[in-house]
Amino acid sequence: MKFSTLISVYESLEDTTKRLEMTDIVSQFLKESPEDVLDVVVYFLLGKVFPDWMDAELGVGTKLVIRVVSTVSGVPESMIEEYVREEGDMGKACERAINEKKQVILFSEELSVEYVYEILTKLSEFSGARSQEKKLKYLSNLFSSATGKEARYLVRIVLGTMRTGIGEGTVRDAVARGFGCDPSQVERAYMLTNDFGLVAKTARKNVADLDKLDITFFRPIKFMLAQVATLQEAKERMHLLSCEIKYDGSRAQIHKKGKKIKIFSRRLEDITSALPDVVGAVRKSIVEDAIVEGEIVAMEHDHPRPFQYVLRRLRRKYDIQEMMEKIPLSLYVFDVLYKDGPLLDFPFRKRREVLEALVREGASAQISTVLVTEDVEEAQEFFNQSIKMGHEGLMIKDVESVYQPGARGKKWLKIKETMETLDLAIIGAEWGEGRRAHWLASFLLGIRDEQGTFMEIGKVGTGITDELFKELTDKLTPYIIEQKGKTVKLIPYLVVEVAYEEVQKSPNYESGYALRFPRVVRMREDKSPEEADDIDRLHEILGE
Ligand code: AMP
């Protein structure tokens, strides 16, 4: 398929904000797409390159893209940076540069979707010392065949900044309409596979086959999430309170089949190699093939250490043995998603029964401690105990609820002690002064609106140690898309947990709110920007 065909679809999607029209455009396009590229087309439409379950990254930042476009177009990098400032958009800036290309390659081939996909897949395979050079070479090849307009969208795919406005809901409805099946059938197939490309391909071949799709071992599914509540609210919603300790660590989805074990983080990254001790614990304690979920916690003499310790373990790529001794980890399992078939549709109480039969508890793997009661006071007592033991509070789960991947509903409630913090994306920053001149020192925070766009809600520069300033600067610099004086604009990439004293209505920020006295509690590298808190969550905290 010609890449330009896809480009015209992106353009028509940009011309409308109406969901129904978008669904029409996408469903028509999917029907017309050849079968062998249908999956890739779906990923590209969603602004992605890979299915959600796949742990693959292109590892390309704005700097590299500018270098590539400069190499191909002959326009100096500084000029492209100037275009970025003027256009406020990397895609459009690169389009401008490519349009100014001095040398037209006469026999360059027209880009195809297949070729673009092949090259981008290769990029994700490069790692190590010379990977940036290799990426430069491959990307230059790709961009040298691109027209200006193609370059605009290529840049957005590569940087993950495509905002066509179509989300999973639109794709679900478009697949259903295009291939004549029920949206709920598509939704279910997607939940189990976490792969809209596969779902579209299957629906196209034979709609009845959608029901045969199942969870596949070692392809993580999305996590079910929780909403904040008080004990009283929990009681209003649920007659029976199934309370569990809320452990303060990192969520893990564990797949075990035969001798093979893999552990996935909340961002669906494969973190197995950093965790040989947890793998060992799983091997001993999970007695049959299954997919379970739990929290990995750093324990010290029966007392949990702060979450940062777990992160240090997760990030570690070398000297893992030494790190294992310094920061031993424990696993608390709390759910089971698969055993002899998917269990997502089982009520929680049934899944818990399966879990209890599945886990042989040992020193480093246990089942989460639970208390089932109708009595709020008893639940309060359990909460107090949890806090005293150094945990975060309680999770209260509806015993009849099914497991809904990716949903943050009211079936799982989290009860915490402290004032609710917000997980916000960093969308801009300012370079510091004096001693901090080489660091980004003040950060603009963004909260997601319903469309997934980040709106400003405050600036934060306190609660940050020198070490963290340095780390934030290193992490964010590749995502700078615009710089005016000391102020930079960033692709939302990094999420931080922010505490504050109060939320005020404010006309100064796009979101309409401002945080008073915000401070950074910690980085939330386990969360992607799409998982950061949104405006609904803020309304919930404010009781609006
Ligand atoms: P939060 O990250 O603040 O949205 O809180 C939800 C997270 O709490 C989950 O994603 C888990 O990582 C974690 N958690 C800790 N203990 C439990 C538990 N017993 N059940 C479910 N989630 C838990």
Verbal overview:
This protein is of the alpha+beta class and 544 residues long. Helix content is 40%, strand content 22%. It has helices at 3-14, 19-32, 38-45, 62-73, 77-87, 90-99, 113-125, 131-144, 148-159, 168-179, 183-193, 196-205, 231-237, 276-285, 307-315, 320-326, 348-358, 376-388, 466-476, 535-542; strands spanning 225-228, 241-246, 250-257, 260-264, 290-300, 303-304, 329-338, 365-367, 370-373, 393-397, 408-416, 422-431, 440-448, 454-460, 480-484, 487-490, 495-499, 502-505, 513-516, 519-523. The longest helix is centred in the first third of the chain and has 14 residues, at 19-32. It is globular. The chain binds adenosine monophosphate. Adenosine monophosphate is lined by residues 225-226, 244-247, 251, 295, 334, 368, 395, 414.
Question: Keywords for this structure?
Answer:
DNA ligase i, domain 1; OB fold (Dihydrolipoamide Acetyltransferase, E2P); 3 domains; 20 strands; globular; 544 residues; binds adenosine monophosphate; seven-stranded antiparallel β-sheet; D-amino Acid Aminotransferase, Chain A, domain 1
CATH superfamily of the largest domain: DNA ligase/mRNA capping enzyme
How helical, in percent, are the residues? 25-40%
CATH topology of the largest domain: D-amino Acid Aminotransferase, Chain A, domain 1
Number of helix segments?
A: 20
How would you characterize the largest beta sheet?
7 strands, antiparallel
- How far apart lie the N and C ends? 48 Å
Distinct small molecules bound, one entry per kind: adenosine monophosphate
Quickly name the level 1 CATH class of the largest domain.
Alpha Beta
- Tally of DSSP β-strands: 20
